Amino acid sequence: MHLQRRDGDATPTSSSPSSTASIKTDPSATAADFVVPKPFDTALSNNFTAPCAAFFKAMLSNSSFNDCHPFSLMLQTSSSFFDASKSYIRITRTLEATCSVNSQQCLGIMDSLALALREDANCAVDYTNDNPQVLQAYNGLLAYEPLYQASCLRDDDGNYCYANAVTNTTATSDAYPYYLPLGAAMPGGARPTCNTCLQDGMAIFSAFGGNSTQPISQTYDGAAQQIDMYCGPTFVNKTATPLKGTASGISVSLTPSITLFIMLLVYFFQ
Q1: Which residues form the DUF7729 domain (predicted)?
Q2: In this predicted model, what pLDDT tens digit does every residue of 143-172 receive, in sequence order?
């Protein structure tokens, strides 16, 4: 492994590699006006059942959820994240925020919310009816851990791999692998750069790809075989190879965390 990965409770400082390693600048990205993007930061669709709309409102207004700055939920649902991705500095600051949280605590919150989302009293009907925003939320909650790990990878210069990928205008396919954990297949013509960022990111995804509860279980093998065709037959594992203790799964016996219960109680009885 060539890249560095943050621990779940590590806190970046002004002297962290991501703050100093790059000379890329953006005059518009001043510290004073930067706000960490949030999931679903545009108007939600009106195509929700009432219980599901209430669930989303409770989730998105909960400070414990928001303090996790979930990268997996920002990728497909955040307009401000999309805007931040246009600036190397802004997306780096976003990643510093998402990677400085206690990931194990946040994982418990995301797992609990994923279970609660599909309950009859919340969004079960909307999920069954393939409501796009409900499916995005569910997949994003499930994919929190693999995308936390992948988004916090750095290159040998200390720069975030995702920041490099999303701002690389000469290799526009570099960001595609980050959508695999959300259940989005890599386009057939995509050719991400064959570098250590891609190799180490796919190694993370391989460890989750064999877990049938994870959306990436449907996308990893095809992407890996595609990458190996042009990066070499040993560049990544062609099939998912989960490691013991690596991939977390949502099981029916998992009890929602106290954080979730408090969140719902505060919302419904305020």
Answers
A1: 36-239
A2: 999 999 999 999 999 999 999 999 998 888
Identify whether the C-beta of residue 37 lies closer than 8 Å to the C-beta of residue 239: no
Task: Give the pLDDT score at 30.
Answer: 53
User: What's the pLDDT band for 21 if we cut at 50, 70, 90?
Assistant: very low
Handedness of CA 110, 152, 43, 139 (dihedral sign): negative
Which pLDDT does position 31 carry in this prediction?
A: 54
Region 169-190: what's the mean pLDDT? 94
Structure tokens at 144: 């929190």
Check if the beta carbon of residue 9 is closer than 8 Å to that of residue 102: yes
Q: Which 3-state string (H, E, C) describes the chain?
A: CCCECCCCCCCCCCCCHHHHCCCCCCCCCCHHHCCCCCCCCCCCCCCCCHHHHHHHHHHHCCHHHHCCCCHHHHHHHCHHHHHHCCCHHHHHHHHHHHHCCCHHHHHHHHHHHHHHHCCCCCCHHHHHCCCHHHHHHHHHHHCHHHHHHHHCCECCCCCEHHHHHHCCCCCCCCCHHHHHHHCCCCCCCCCCCCCHHHHHHHHHHHHHHCCCCCHHHHCHHHHHHHHHHHHCCCCCCCCCCCCCCCCCCCCCCCCCCHHHHHHHHHHHCC
- For the chain, report the end-to-end CA distance as a whole number of angstroms: 49
Q: What is the pLDDT of residue 32?
A: 59
Q: Which tokens sit at 249?
A: 């799964």
Evaluate if residue 8 carries a pLDDT over 80.
no
